[in-house]
TrEMBL record:
Ranges annotated as spanning the membrane: 7-24, 36-62, 83-106, 136-157, 164-186, 198-219, 231-250, 256-274, 286-311, 323-344
Record InterPro entries: Acyl_transf_3_dom, Acyltransferase_3
GO biological process: polysaccharide biosynthetic process
Pfam family, one: Acyl_transf_3
GO molecular function: acyltransferase activity, transferring groups other than amino-acyl groups; hydrolase activity
Record keywords, A-Z: Acyltransferase, Hydrolase, Membrane, Transferase, Transmembrane, Transmembrane helix
GO cellular component: membrane
All copies of domain Acyltransferase, residue ranges: 8-341
Highest taxon of source: Bacteria
Secretion signal, residue range per the UniProt entry: none
Name this polypeptide is given: Peptidoglycan/LPS O-acetylase OafA/YrhL, contains acyltransferase and SGNH-hydrolase domains
Provenance organism: Williamwhitmania taraxaci
Amino acid sequence: MQKKIDLIQVVRGVGALLVCSFHMKTLLNTPTFAYGSFFFGSGAIGVPLFFILSGFIIFYTTQNSARSVTYVRIFALKRIVRIVPLYYLVTLIWIVGLGQVGYYLARRPDLLLSALTFVPSFTSTVGPSFGFPPVAIGWTLAYEMLFYLIFCVSLFFGKFRYAVLSLLIVSIVVGLPFLVGASVNFDASHAYGFSVRYLEVMASPVMLYFLLGVLLGWIYQSSFAIKSHTISFLMVGVSLVYFWLAYFGIGHLSNNIFANMLSCGALLFSLLMWHKNRPISFFKPLVYLGDISYSLYLVHPLVIVFLPKILRSVGLASLANGPVLFVLAIIVILLISAISYEFFERKMLSRISRAIV
């Protein structure tokens, strides 16, 4: 098994915190200045980062895998164990905690079924979510699961798996629109109007983020390297400046699929090249933040909704709003995420994962 790259873990952790802060940004806004919207209004960039990192990690961890039905089965089961149980648990807590059991079981079981099978509800024509599941952040997992499915198919092609994976994703994103006589649209919010609605997900340009991650993984593991420390340092500096310019919308840098791929991809490429040439040491809590990032990603909506309710119910309504709530929520999210990671992901799910090998 490949050793984890601390750099990737840190970026995952930062990405998760950006998404978390994005969903709480209004707590930091004041009548005189919208601090939260200014600092975290583009925090959703953490989602493209996650998708790119997923592609990278899949490449990095499967290079020496065998071409066999057994390996594909184990890979698929491990991905399911990694993603599904915690998501189901968070969804259950959400529905029960908000008293929505009757709604989802009696009135709209179709919405619950969509959420549990990682298929958008298509209650909206706006992509890339096409209708949110009960825990809204779960829309991103539909793309994760689709990527894993396509990757499972590519595994049967042995050493050509990544070429096949790339060909499949590009062919789907570029080719499917022709089924309805449309031109390719790289706006993630666009809908083509397929009669088979799931094709909207398959044709979404969001899938290109995963492909970029695979490309970065291939470059990182190849013999290509930038030996000059000065050039590596300058690349990191320039990519960081560009990323933050794009993040804050300075210079009218557009916010679309290719702009996100450029800003995130350039930053990750430069960091990986620097790390490859001279491994970067990170503060261990930052690495651990990456370890708990999946729990953090799924848990934070629960805390955002339930923490204010709990504070008000115990007579601490003064703490249930504004910057104080923002800080308290971050602390609680980190604590619960660490507990979830240690006792649910590491212990319980690891045992299940080992049992299926």
